[in-house]
Amino acid sequence: xxxxxxxxxxxxxxxxxxxxxxxxxxxxxxxxxxxxxxxxxxxxxxxxxxxxxxxxxxxxxxxxxxxxxxxxxxxxxxxxxxxxxxxxxxxxxxxxxxxxxxxxxxxxxxxxxxxxxxxxxxxxxxxxxxxxxxxxxxxxxxxxxxxxxxxxxxxxxxxxxxxxxxxxxxxxxxxxxxxxxxxxxxxxxxxxxxxxxxxxxxxxxxxxxxxxxxxxxxxxxxxxxxxxxxxxxxxxxxxxxxxxxxxxxxxxxxxxxxxxxxxxxxxxxxxxxxxxxxxxxxxxxxxxxxxxxxxxxxxxxxxxxxxxxxxxxxxxxxxxxxxxxxxxxxxxxxxxxxxxxxxxxxxxxxxxxxxxxxxxxxxxxxxxxxxxxxxxxxxxxxxxx
Length: 385
Prior knowledge:
The structure is a single chain. This protein is mostly helical. It folds into three domains: about 1-90; about 115-265, no CATH class; about 325-385, 2-Layer Sandwich (Herpes Virus-1). It has helices spanning about 1-45, 50-70, 70-95, 110-125, 130-140, 145-160, 165-175, 175-180, 185-200, 205-215, 225-230, 250-265, 275-300, 350-360, and strands at about 340-345, 350, 365, 375, 380. The strands form two sheets. The protein has a three-stranded antiparallel beta sheet with strand order 2-1-5. Helix 1 packs antiparallel against helix 2 and helix 6 runs antiparallel to helix 12 (about 250-265). The longest helix has about 45 residues, at about 1-45. It is flat. Keywords: Cytoplasm, Metal-binding, Zinc, Zinc-finger.
């Protein structure tokens, strides 16, 4: 709702700006037309014109410009634009808190871990010079070990952007056993792209030789795929008009580059997404809720910095949900190994500590807080996520 209000205010300003620009151009065209007409009149009678004739033309031009009234025409549209421009910052101030430091909590971060996260992010993004500078200035030379792995990754991906699959194929061949263990057919997909490239650029004979050398080992498990590629040989030179034109789609390169990046990061023990990027994106999404909480606590003269957990949930998108969690509906505590979720006979779930309190330290039966059924501790079963 807030974003819609801001968008509506912005659209109003943009509309007034377009109207003002259109009106200004219209007035400029009118003034320009009158001036050009006067110049043409002066030029047409230049040889025989007397000073009196030129003065009369200029006087007529002045009269026409006064009739156009550029200042009066522009005043209205400019005034409306100025009014809307002055209102827009007020709308932004109303819905956006300029001081986001209110949502800050004092946390004792380990500087070494922070430096490692930032350096890893720069290496992951290919900003090697910046990461090296950070490591040198932070005095943590051991973090340079992260660099070599990401250098190789960017070398492979950069080659793929130029349609060079050799580095990627060499990597897939070296890590063939690991790829098999996770059920990946990345190597076959790379050979398929290479086969199509050879067929398009070098012809049927070279493509067939490549297939005999590199695709034959996959025939026992991927015969359908191999047969499709062999069918492409019949359309050499006109693959774009064949039933197999889908194999030429640029999206194959993009998807394969993404899949390769995921495998590279996995084998490096790294996540596909940069942890720093994920943390910043999640923080931005949760920031409005935290700012509202800080304002409410300040109004109640309470210090939320001292709270061990937030009194309100911070709902993040599914892209930030990496594993299942359980939050007890009674205590609001997140489930853990020491305080696991427990399934009651009625089907409701509470954390172990809540059940312990309800049963008076496991000494008696208790009533489920969400239905009238009774339960005993022995009837509760631990859930595993």
